[in-house]
Amino acid sequence: MKIGFLFPGQGSQSLGMGEDLYNFYDEIREIYKKVNQILGIDVVNLTFSSSEEELSQTKNTQIAIFTMSLGILEVLKKNGIEANNLAGLSLGEYTALEYGGALDFETAVKIVEKRGEIMQNNIPDGNWQMAGVLALSDSDVEKACKMVTKGFVAPANYNCPGQVVVSGDEEGIAEITEIAKELGAKKVSPIKTYGPFHTEKLEIASEKLRLELEKIDINIPNKIVYKNINSEKYEKSDNMIDILAKHVKSPVHFSRIIQNMIDDGVDTFIEIGPGKILTSLVKRVSRDVKLININDKESLEQAIFELKEIK
Fold first, then answer.
1. What is residue 226's DSSP assignment?
2. In the chain, at which end, N or C, are there fewer CB atoms within 10 A of the end residue's CB?
3. For residue 44, which of 54, 55, 36 has the smallest C-alpha distance?
4. What residues pair up with 164 in beta bridges, in sequence order?
């Protein structure tokens, strides 16, 4: 058995996520306490008791998801469950980098908060939307984007075969919805994120994030972490600052990441954090791998039981 950890990103959040984990595990409460102390904000209240609207603000969503995933990791470590192959969707790459030793805990917490703040505060004027295009090839989605004439739209996330998320303005999304259906798309579904993320429209955010990244210590991870921008592993020659700065304005190649992990021998994928989005995406890439999703106390206990039995 070769385990790969996967970490979700923005869009997986829900109010109250992880509350049962927080109430049961001392290790998880300690992670939330440390994040609160580092940032001076009440992540517990934000995650469990605020509102869907407040939690869905980019600056809040990212740190809330990040904290929950780190808490679960602590319990897994205590039970001897670890992985050497890591990947995350967008924000989730930062969780992978922290776990993989590229960022120390405090630095990771601070840069994730700063990233969310920069992404939220540097969205260009416009009514921006994201949508998932289902049952079209990557090339057909790219073709559909180029056919749009009334607004802006571009591929943002290559999630799995037959599912690409596009990002754009209201006119662009409306137009590509019709074009995609004409090309054979089964459905075009809106996604609960509110910005042209992972497109050229975040150029200013990218440059501001670069300035923040230049202030911190980032190392090449000591575990295998796959890059969103090209699906390849981080190498010693990589410019980490450049990669992470480009990350917010470049498409996420998640589908290729999963295939690369499988090609590298990963046969058991564990999604760690809120929701089940990544688990469903992996299933679309391959049905020959074992899938485990950890997003609450029951699923964490079941995962520990299953993995210890296998070991």
1. B
2. C
3. 36
4. 133, 158
| Number of Cβ within a 10 Å radius of residue 1 | 10
Instruction: Name the residues annotated as catalytic.
Output: 90, 198
The secondary structure element, H or E, covering residue 277 is helix 277-285
Q: Give 3-state DSSP helix, strand, coil % of the chain, rounded to 5.
A: 50, 15, 35
Give the per-residue pLDDT at 11: 85
Q: How far is CA 205 from the centre of its chain?
A: 17
Give pLDDT tens digits for 172-199.
999 999 999 999 999 999 886 678 999 9
56 to 13, 91, 131, 218, 268: CA distances (angstroms)? 7, 14, 16, 28, 30
Pairing of strands 268-272, 290-294: parallel
- Under the banding of pLDDT at 50, 70 and 90, the label for residue 113 is very high
Residue type for 78, please?
K
Residues whose CB is less than 8 angstroms from the CB of residue 16 and which lie 6 or more positions away in sequence, other chains included: 47, 48
- The answer to whether 253 touches 228, Cβ cutoff 8 Å, is yes
Compute the distance between CA of residue 232 and CA of residue 256 in angstroms, rounded to an integer.
9
Sheet strand arrangement including 128-134: 153-160, 163-169, 128-134, 187-191
Q: How many CB atoms lie within 10 A of CB 228?
A: 28
pLDDT tens track for 32-77:
999 999 999 999 999 999 999 999 999 999 999 999 999 999 999 9
d(CA 266, CA 1): 8
Extract the tokens encoding 254.
């998640």
For 22, the token pair is 């927080």
Residues 6+ apart with CB under 8 A from 215: none
| Structure-token pair, residue 229 | 């921008």
pLDDT at 213 over 60: yes
Question: Tens digits of per-residue pLDDT, 135-153?
Answer: 999 999 999 999 999 899 9
